[in-house]
Design goal:
Among the domains are: 54 residues, no CATH class; 65 residues. The two termini are 44 Å apart. It is mainly alpha-helical.
Length: 189
């Protein structure tokens, strides 16, 4: 039988399952971790360095890896609903929570923040078109038509400041507070 790339074997416990689960629960670890620790001791290996090397190898092989979490159906459902509401895949949502992205950890909606930024950018785009039209009118000497833009010019500074404040707030809410694995990797130069 060819060895699995996942280093997995099945063992008939011959009635030891209950004792195994009780001992693992008492130590606050998974049954698999308890068995691995026992095997490390029996085989004379150094478990922590071996496990760390295996995890490091798994993380360096690929930018993404699969992680399975055990939780109640209600908690799993809540994660799926919250991820869908945030417009993210469940893995990206959980990673955002771990990275303490304010828009996720505060319970606000990432999609709502992005929609607000898009709307504000749309208003800024309209403002830009109006300024170009005003410039054209002034270049042509059409002062009477240009005067219609006076009210817009009076609030121009406030409009731009409001957009910049919104944009910086949204970006701050979407930026992780803790470094992520992608952000902490050294850049290839």
């Amino acid at each position: 039988m060819a060895p699995s790339s996942r280093d997995r074997i099945s063992v008939d416990l011959h009635g030891l399952r209950t004792v195994l689960f009780e001992r693992a629960r008492a130590r606050g670890i998974s049954p698999s971790k308890l068995v691995r620790d026992a095997l490390v001791d029996a085989l004379g290996q150094t478990g922590t360095s071996r496990e760390g090397a295996a995890l490091g190898a798994a993380l360096s092989r690929d930018d993404r890896m699969k992680l399975s979490l055990r939780m109640s159906r209600a908690d799993a459902g809540a994660i799926l609903v919250a991820a869908r509401r945030a417009g993210l895949a469940p893995g990206a949502f959980v990673a955002g929570l771990v990275a303490d992205v304010p828009a996720l950890s505060a319970g606000s909606s990432r999609a709502h923040h992005i929609a607000a930024l898009i709307a504000s950018s749309g208003e800024l785009s309209t403002l830009s078109r109006n300024i170009r039209h005003l410039t054209k009118l002034l270049r042509e000497g059409n002062v009477h038509a240009a005067l219609e833009y006076r009210d817009m010019l009076m609030t121009l500074d406030d409009d731009i400041r409001r957009h910049l404040m919104l944009a910086s707030g949204v970006l701050a809410e979407l930026r992780p507070r803790r470094p992520t694995a992608v952000a902490s990797r050294p850049s290839a130069t």
